[in-house]
Design brief:
This protein has 188 residues and is mainly alpha-helical. Helix 4 packs parallel to helix 6 and helix 5 packs antiparallel against helix 6. It has six helices and no strands.
Length: 188
């Protein structure tokens, strides 16, 4: 606004301003009312908040208890795997599991900046095959001892071992190439 507009505004409002001084003790009365209103509001807000928060906490507790109960009931129906089919397949599963764990330990020992990407890719493939195996366990549980599912489970184990062996061979090739390059550079 321009100065002229402000002057015109004040001239038009002349006489409408409350210019009287408040009475003695006005400030103390005002502060006491302000404090009492603030105290009442905060107490009612706390009371309302506590009830609401308590209700939410109780509801959350009930939901958690129900979900745990449902999960426990679902876990009672244990998924079948090769070990549940026959003692021979149990031995086969144990063999494959031990072999895979052994190969994974070897793979982890070969961890280096050069082999990092190859190992990460292999672990992603192994993880995918593990997820497929879990799906096969669900199918075996639902369909019973279906030979096609059992064969797919055994093939899944073999695929994991093949991937691990291939990656370990690849790492050995990389190490050999690196050694050969270092020997060539040192002799020249």
């Amino acid at each position: 606004m321009k100065k002229e507009n402000l002057d015109d505004l004040f001239e038009s409002l002349n006489g409408e301003f409350d210019v009287e001084n408040p009475g003695i003790g006005h400030e103390n009365r005002f502060l006491s009312k302000l404090k009492s209103d603030t105290t009442e509001n905060s107490e009612t807000e706390k009371t309302k908040g506590i009830n609401w928060k308590s209700f939410l906490a109780i509801a959350a507790s009930i939901i958690i208890c129900l979900s745990v109960f449902v999960n426990l009931n679902n876990n009672e129906e244990e998924l079948m795997d090769l070990a549940n089919v026959s003692p021979e397949l149990s031995e086969t599963q144990d063999f494959f599991t031990a072999t895979i764990e052994n190969e994974l330990r070897k793979l982890n020992k070969e961890q280096s900046p050069i082999t990092k990407k190859i190992i990460e890719d292999a672990l992603v493939l192994i993880d995918n095959l593990e997820n497929d195996y879990n799906t096969l366990k669900i199918e075996l549980t639902q369909n019973g001892e279906d030979q096609r599912i059992i064969h797919a489970m055994i093939s899944n184990f073999q695929s994991r071992i093949d991937i691990l062996n291939t990656v370990l061979e690849e790492i050995e090739n990389i190490k050999q190439l690196k050694t050969d390059n270092n020997e060539t550079n040192n002799t020249i």
